[in-house]
Amino acid sequence: MTALFALATSLLWGLADFGGGLLTRRTPALTVVVVSQAIAAAVLGVIVVATGAWSEAGDRLWFAAAAGVVGPIALICFYKALALGPMGVVSPLGTVGVAVPVGVGLFLGERPGLVQVAGIAVAVLGVVLAGGPQLRGAPVQRQAIVLTLIAAFGFGTVFALIAEASTTVTGLFLALFVQRVVNVVAGGLALYASARRGIAALPDGGAFPWRSLPALGFVGLADVAANGTYVVAAQHGPVTVAAVLASLYPVVTALAARGFLQERLLAVQAAGAGLALVGTVLLAAG
User: What is the enclosing helix (H) or strand (E) of 53?
Assistant: First the structure.
């Protein structure tokens, strides 16, 4: 069951990342986040009412609320990075956020083994190689690398928080609902503030992208489903196994980008992205 849910997580996250990055090329990232998360919150609200998940309310929901604050920041940074591209570099770099759970373990008294130390070194080397070509005028922008790293550690924080937000399936529904509601509120306030500063909240032309609504819904629902399947995978088996299998989602994003966008990577970029992914697997497996 752990392997099944973790692999489902990789598939869902990979497709959500690809869709979100693609939408952000036409629609402001903040708008993509708010609308997609609002759709997910509405669907989760129905599920919460239908399952009676309100009975699971308790102090643990503060973890979900905190995840809801951090989540939009990470998603906005990540979608902007994906829009700058190439997705085949950005998506694997996003997996280095697994360092956050490792850091939490260190704070609680754990000490990394040789495998984890090797994972950190390999991941850092991957970041350098993936970003280095920019210094010679290659297509990868330094801003994309910085945004991806911010997003990665934001995602890692969200995973650590949401894992503490529930211990039951119905409690998970409620935690994910609270997280998405806070996402929408925080993102909505940021969207309003940016609009007041004159930053466009809609695509060129000023019309709401109604034709993109199904795609926005898919991104929001795939993202929340991935969070759910990851928690279930971690609760039903070793967290290391769940983390390793769930960390394969960049492969899905890269394959989607290659298949639909015909993206091609320079050799050094591909090597850097691959090393970042290997480092992430070593960190999780250690």
Answer: none
pTM, whole model, 2 decimals? Answer: 0.77
Residues 6+ apart with CB under 8 A from 17: 78, 82, 87, 91, 94, 249, 250, 252, 253
Note the Cα 223 to chain centre separation in Å: 8
Give the E-state strand segments of the chain in sequence order.
none
Going by the DSSP 8-state scheme, the letter that residue 86 receives in this structure is -
> What span, in angstroms and rounded, lies between the C-alpha atoms of 66 and 231?
16
CA distances from 26 to 35, 84, 161, 176 (A): 14, 12, 32, 28
Within 25-141, where are the H helices? 29-51, 61-84, 87-93, 99-107, 114-131
Supply the Cα-derived Rg of the chain in whole angstroms.
Answer: 18
Going by C-alpha positions, the residue among 149, 153, 151, 144 that lies closest to residue 97 is 153
User: How far apart are the C-alpha atoms of 187 and 105, rounded to whole Å?
Assistant: 30
Give the helix/strand (H/E) hosting 272.
helix 267-285
Residue 64 · residue 161 · CB < 8 Å: yes
Pairwise pLDDT comparison (72 vs 107), residue with the higher score: 72
Dihedral sign, Cα of residue 220, residue 279, residue 143, residue 193? positive
Q: How far apart, in Å, are the Cα atoms of 134 and each of 91, 130, 196, 261?
A: 17, 9, 34, 21
pLDDT in tens, 121-179: 887 777 667 655 444 444 567 788 888 889 888 888 887 888 788 878 888 899 999 99
Distance from first CA to last CA of the chain, Å, rounded? Answer: 21
Given a contact cutoff of 8 angstroms between Cβ atoms, the answer to whether 13 and 225 are in contact is no
Q: Which regions of 97-220 does DSSP assign to beta strands (E)?
A: none
